[in-house]
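Exercise: predict the structure of this protein bound to zinc ion.
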Amino acid sequence: MAVHDLHLLGSPVLRRQSAEVTAVDAEVRRFIDDLFETMDLAKGVGLAANQVGVATRIAVVGVENERLAMVNPVIVSAEGKDRAEEGCLSIPDAYGEVERADRIVLEATDRDGKPYRLEAAGLLARAIQHEVDHLDGILFIDHLGPLKRQLLVARWKKEHKGEGVIKTIRPEHARPE
Ligand SMILES: [Zn+2]
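Solution:
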């Protein structure tokens, strides 16, 4: 397994429409393991392939006890509305209130290449919607009002000026204080 570098706001791959996966082979399985490892190290609750520079429809979610690998995920139904604060590993330290469906039904393929259907609510439903958005080149800031988005992006760019759009994640204990 390997930890991948994260692509941050400004990296064009985050805005790409990701391509369907044709087969879940050994390479895809290894990549899914890498996504989980990268997500865990970065302390995220989800990670999409294009956040590590790969524009294919693969994402992982880790919420509470649920660990989900999603290949070619599709949200087939969505109900209710819920607002909550969201962040994103690709826009570190920025948060905003996003309205999402409260309950969803997901159809996807798992790490073994088996199709599955899952009903989700609350935080899990939110994380899945956030990750599926990534695969379509959509970021959580796109759900904010235009003024809020502008302010958030302007502040983020100022605070992260000169840092580039690729970030190497390091274990916390190795981080310089
Ligand atoms: Zn994200």
